[in-house]
């Protein structure tokens, strides 16, 4: 299950770099949680064909992340913003509330920008 979640994250970041077919089948596997047999039936391919497409697309996504590191960067950035936000929330005063609002907005914008 964790593998599907991680692949789903990678698909969010690098999906446009896959072929339409790879993206479609991987989306069915990750996001719609279909089994390989269900994908094969729906797409009119063999179970082995569905498996091969999923594995090839996953491998491509992992290679892209290894080279570009967008998901890792996103996680570091949002984790850091979240940590700063928690620290600022512990500080009393109006300036802290303004900083909290700014950090909240930045975190929301980053998540929205990445479609997450």
Quickly list its features:
Arc Repressor Mutant, subunit A, mainly alpha, 116 residues
* Topology order in helix (H) and strand (E) letters: HHHHHH
pLDDT under 50 segments (min length 5)? none
Roughly what fraction of the amino acids lie in strands? under 5%
Number of strands: 0
> Which CATH architecture of the largest domain would you pick?
Orthogonal Bundle
Shape: elongated
Q: Mind describing the biggest β-sheet?
A: none
Radius of gyration: 19 Å
Question: Would you kindly provide a written description of the structure presented here, covering whatever features stand out?
Answer:
The protein has helices at 2-14, 20-30, 36-43, 47-68, 70-89, 94-113. The longest helix is centred in the middle third of the chain and has 22 residues, at 47-68. Helix 1 (2-14) runs antiparallel to helix 2, helix 2 crosses helix 4 and helix 3 packs across helix 4 (47-68). It is elongated, with a radius of gyration of 19 Å. It has 116 residues and is mostly helical. It folds into 2 domains: 2-68, Winged helix-like DNA-binding domain superfamily/Winged helix DNA-binding domain (Arc Repressor Mutant, subunit A), CATH 1.10.10; 72-113.
């Amino acid at each position: 299950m964790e593998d599907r979640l991680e692949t789903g994250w990678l698909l969010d970041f690098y999906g446009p770099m896959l072929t339409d077919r790879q993206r479609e089948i991987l989306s069915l596997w990750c996001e719609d949680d279909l089994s390989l047999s269900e994908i094969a039936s729906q797409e009119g391919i063999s179970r082995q064909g569905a498996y091969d497409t999923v594995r090839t697309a996953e491998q491509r996504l992992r290679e892209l992340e290894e080279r570009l590191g967008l998901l890792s960067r996103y996680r570091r950035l949002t984790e850091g913003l979240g940590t700063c936000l928690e620290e600022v929330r512990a500080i009393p005063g109006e300036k802290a509330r303004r900083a909290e609002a700014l950090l909240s907005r930045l975190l929301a914008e980053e998540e929205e920008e990445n479609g997450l």
